[in-house]
Structures are given as structure tokens and as C-alpha cells.
Specification:
The complex is a heterotrimer of chains A (105), B (94) and C (220). Chain A has helices spanning 25-37, 47-56, 59-64, 67-81, 87-104. Chain A is mostly helical and 105 residues long. The relative contact order of chain A is 0.11. With 94 residues, chain B is mostly beta strands. Chain B has helices at 45-48, 67-70, and strands at residues 10-13, 32-43, 57-66, 81-87, 91-93. Chain B has a 5-stranded antiparallel β-sheet with strand order 4-3-2-1-5. The model of chain B has no long low-confidence stretch (mean pLDDT 96). In chain C, 40% of the residues lie in helices and 11% in strands. Chain C has a two-stranded parallel ribbon with strand order 1-4. Chain C has a two-stranded parallel sheet with strand order 2-3. Chains A and C meet through helix 1, helix 3, helix 4 and helix 5 of A and helix 1, helix 2 and helix 7 of C. Strand 4 (81-87) of chain B pairs parallel with strand 3 of chain C, so a sheet runs across the interface.
């Protein structure tokens, strides 16, 4: 009997948190990139592949990441799995982008 | 693949025990409901999740369950229901 | 960004409380948001270099996903209230009816469910966050919270009470778990005292929450 950690229908939980979070630019960018990569001309990563990504990176990561960060991490995992990018080149680029942020601020 | 069920049919959701990405939640598995409509034919998300886009499209139904059949502790009137989409291969005639 | 639920979100935090209660809604703090921006920028740069994306496309796609919102849903609902023949077409095929109003539904199909005096519909997605984004835009944070996803299918009347809506027992409640290719929109009851109102006036009474089913439309 398999039940994913994301498959929470019927579980006990506390009150529904009503605070509404704003939708930030980076979060829109995550969705935009995924949409484009999944479109008819590319088909590099589908919605179901991304879902498989966050359904398989472990319950702690799933429960502790924010919603859009989950999708970003899932997309990264699948792109690496499919050898579209490598972890090394991503880490290198992250370091380069981070350096530019630090220089600017 | 031809749709095996139509509106009004009683169906049981199977325990397919499939690992990986499935869109049939745990809470309806093994439960009996009534088909309310055939939504259409769509690619199987279980295949799409592993990059298999070759098809075929499969029937997708909306199935209605009495809440009292889903939850032993349901606090609500008998006429309350839950409606959810289930792919053909997850269903058996009841 | 403040830690709304007391979760100071450092990205190296230890898991010695591994399976203790996770926060009800994880919000990024300022560091987390900067981190998110850095990572998506880095990913985008690589994809652009590999000719999988062009920066202008990303900009356009962001504009496209920002465009839908309450106003599109309200337009559909107001037309359905004002025009019974449109309402029938809407209930039969949400996607093609929305197209009549120039609203393009991007998802496979839109199922519009009608609330009446004797029937109330409520929408959720237990597995993730499925929502009619091409019409209403992004779902509210509470819709994707663990509590809403977990509890709505099992104790919907309690959920409605938390939203201030106490449904009498003689009203039938249908919860729709939006788990596959369909997307759902609730057609709320038309408020009393709105006879002869223009569609524009009617649309102003439609709230996002009434189209999800956690509220009724605003009173006239």
C-alpha cells in the first residue's frame, strides 16, 4: 500500500491559516520557466514530472520548503535527472549570481 | 481505450499499490462510489511523470462518494458527498 | 518578509525536531526570497545559454500569468446570473462558454458547479494546488495550506464555519477534490435584491472566495 507524503487528504491538521502571502517576482519566474519548458515546442518538463519531483524529495524537504521553493527544487531535480543541466553547472552559476547580488547591495 | 463505465454505474476504487506519481488519493482507495460523468480522455499522469508522452489517452470519470462511506467520523448530514476524478484503470465494477 | 507563523526559515536549519509539527504555512523570510531569486536567475541563465529559453519569453510568460484574476471569474458569474441561456451553456461546458466572453481557459476543462438554496459546492485540491489559474490567477495561500488540503475533504462544514459560513444541515454539501485534469469554479447564488442590475454591478458582488465555495457572494 503506497501513500505519498503529499497525499494528505483526510489527515488531521490545525486551523486554516488565513494570512495571504503576496506573489513575488521570483515565484512568478519559477512558474513562467516551468510553463515554457513544458510547452508544445519544448516538452522538457511536464507538470506531472514536476509533481513527481516534489513527491519524491523527502517529507522533511516537502514540509519545510515554501510552496514556490518546492516547485523550484522539484524542477531542478528533474532537469538534473533528465540531464538537461548538471548540479555542478547550477552551483557554479548560483555562486556567480550570488556574487553579483553581493556586489550590487 | 473505450470507457468501461458511464453515469450511474457503481464502482470501487482499486488498491493498485503503484509506486511513484499517481493522482488517486489514498482516502478513496477501496471505496465504493457512483460515476457521475465521463470527463473525457486524457494522457495518464503516471506515464507523463516519467516522461512517457506516447499515450494512449485514457478515460477519466468524476465519481461521487457519500461522505459517510469515506469517513467513519463524518460529522454532517447523510446527503453530503465528495466528488473526485478517477482514471479508468483505477476502477472496477461494483 | 516576516515569519508569519513563527518559522525562522534559515536554509541550514537542523532537523533534530524532524517529524514534529511542521509550520502550517511556510513563508520565506527575506533571506529565503533572495535565495529563491538567485536560484531561479541562475537556472534561467543556464537554460538561456542552452537555447532552451529566451529572456523575453520569460518576461512575456510572467505577464501572461499575472493577467488573470478575480475580474475574469466575476465577469463569467455576472453573465451567468444575467443570462439564463448562457448559464446553461456554462454549466454544460465551462471552457466554451468562457470563450464566448473572450476568456481563454488554459486547462483541459472548466467545470462550473452551481450553488442553490439547497446545494453548496466547495473546491479543494488535496494532492497539490490545482486551481483554475487561467481565470482566477494564483490560488490564495490558505488554499494550498496543509490544513485546507487535509481537512476540507473530511470536515468541510467545520472548514466553512472557520470561514464564517455556517451551512444548515438541510443544505447538501458537495466537496470537489480537483485532483486530475478538470478545474472547478463555483457559480455562487445570486444575491437577493439585484433584479435589473447591470452585469457590471453584479460582477462587483462576486468575490474570489465565493468562486471557491468558502463564502457566499457579497450582499447587494
Amino acid at each position: 500500500m503506497t501513500r505519498g507524503y503529499h497525499d494528505i487528504g483526510g489527515d488531521a491538521a490545525g486551523p486554516v491559516p488565513k494570512d495571504e502571502l503576496p506573489w513575488l517576482h521570483w515565484e512568478k519566474q519559477v512558474e513562467a520557466v516551468r510553463n515554457l519548458l513544458g510547452d508544445g515546442t519544448r516538452r522538457v518538463i511536464s507538470l506531472d514530472e514536476m509533481r513527481r519531483g516534489f513527491e519524491s524529495f523527502g517529507v522533511d524537504k516537502y514540509a519545510s520548503l515554501s510552496f514556490y521553493r518546492r516547485r523550484l527544487e522539484a524542477m531542478i531535480d528533474i532537469l538534473i535527472e533528465k540531464e538537461v543541466i548538471t548540479r555542478e553547472e547550477l552551483d557554479e552559476e548560483i555562486a556567480a549570481v550570488r556574487a553579483r547580488w553581493t556586489n550590487v547591495s | 481505450m473505450k470507457a468501461r463505465f458511464r453515469a450511474g454505474d457503481r464502482v470501487r476504487v482499486l488498491h493498485l499499490g503503484k509506486a511513484g506519481h499517481v493522482r488517486t488519493p489514498f482516502y478513496v482507495r477501496g471505496k465504493v462510489g457512483t460515476v457521475s460523468e465521463l470527463c473525457g480522455y486524457y494522457l495518464n499522469p503516471e506515464d507523463l511523470a516519467v516522461g512517457n508522452t506516447g499515450g494512449p489517452v485514457i478515460p477519466l470519470y468524476r465519481v461521487s462518494f457519500r461522505q459517510h462511506d469515506l469517513w467513519p467520523d463524518y460529522h454532517g448530514p447523510a446527503h453530503d458527498t465528495l466528488s473526485i476524478e478517477i482514471y479508468d484503470h483505477w476502477l472496477a465494477a461494483e | 518578509m516576516s515569519d508569519l507563523h513563527g518559522h525562522d526559515h534559515s536554509h541550514e536549519h537542523s532537523h533534530d525536531h524532524a517529524h514534529a509539527a511542521h509550520p502550517p504555512l511556510v513563508a520565506e523570510d527575506e533571506a529565503g526570497n533572495i535565495e529563491g531569486q538567485i536560484i531561479i536567475d541562475a537556472l534561467q541563465n543556464i537554460l538561456v545559454r542552452k537555447n532552451l529559453l529566451a529572456p523575453e519569453e520569460v518576461t512575456q510568460e510572467i505577464e501572461k500569468i499575472e493577467a488573470p484574476g478575480l475580474h475574469l471569474g466575476a465577469k463569467i458569474i455576472a453573465r451567468a446570473w444575467a443570462d439564463p441561456a448562457f448559464k446553461q451553456r456554462l454549466l454544460e461546458n465551462g471552457k466554451s462558454a468562457a470563450a464566448e466572453l473572450g476568456i481563454k481557459v488554459g486547462e483541459a476543462q472548466l467545470i462550473v458547479v452551481e450553488n442553490t438554496q439547497g446545494l453548496h459546492n466547495l473546491i479543494c485540491c488535496t494532492l497539490c494546488s490545482c486551481y483554475p489559474r487561467s481565470i482566477l490567477g494564483q490560488p490564495p495561500s490558505w488554499y494550498i495550506s496543509k490544513a485546507y488540503r487535509a481537512r476540507t475533504v473530511r470536515e468541510p462544514r467545520q472548514i466553512l464555519s472557520e470561514f464564517g459560513l455556517d451551512l444548515p444541515d438541510d443544505v447538501e454539501l458537495i466537496v470537489h477534490d480537483s485532483n486530475a485534469d478538470m478545474r472547478y469554479l463555483v457559480l455562487p447564488e445570486r444575491p437577493a435584491g439585484t433584479d435589473g442590475w447591470s452585469e457590471e454591478q453584479l460582477a462587483a458582488l462576486v468575490s474570489r472566495d465565493s468562486m471557491i465555495g468558502v463564502a457566499k457572494a457579497n450582499m447587494a
